[in-house]
Amino acid sequence: MEGVLGFAAKLVDAEAEIQRQTLANLTELQLKAAVKDLVAADRVFVAGRRSLFAAASSLTYSLSKAKPNTFLLDIGGGLNTELDGLSAKDVFVGFSFHPYSRITAGLAERARAQGAKVIAVTDSPDSPIGRTAHHVFITLVHGYGFPDSISGAQTIGNILVGLTVSQMGQQALERISANEAQIRSSGELMS
Length: 191
Known about the structure:
By secondary structure, the chain is of the alpha/beta class. The chain has a single domain, classed as Rossmann fold (3-Layer(aba) Sandwich). The chain is 55% helix and 14% strand. Helix 5 links the parallel strand 3 (90-96) and strand 4. Helix 1 (3-24) crosses helix 7 and helix 3 (53-66) runs parallel beside helix 7 (151-168). The radius of gyration is 17 Å and the shape is globular. It starts with a helix and ends in a 5-residue tail after the last helix.
């Protein structure tokens, strides 16, 4: 029997392999193109269902510090209202793995139909969102344990945010600093 530490070691090894494979699937050209669209976007809308909600929320939180018009879609208003009024100046980022979410795929299709750029983080270029997207980032999802891994999706999100902030330059750094100062002054953080 492997024991709990043995299980933990195998799980961590599998997660590290997912991240290595995620990096191996990236190209400089695709990263530059997606980041260019994110930097130029007036608004960024992000969606991820089930376990991928965590990756979508993380990307939204981090990017919104530098780019305030970044929104996490909770789909509370329904497919027809969440993305009303999108344009070619907007970006939709969708996270979707098998079994694919009809809601995320529908949002991606609606965003593209309105002229927005679509970035997909998925497990296959042939996934419903992969076929819709302008930019497709592929990652593995099957880890060592349950549930499926989101570490690859989280890694891609972190890379996109880091590169976008870097490209935005001083203005983004000033917004991040101002946001952090506001959080500190709000009393939310403990000393």
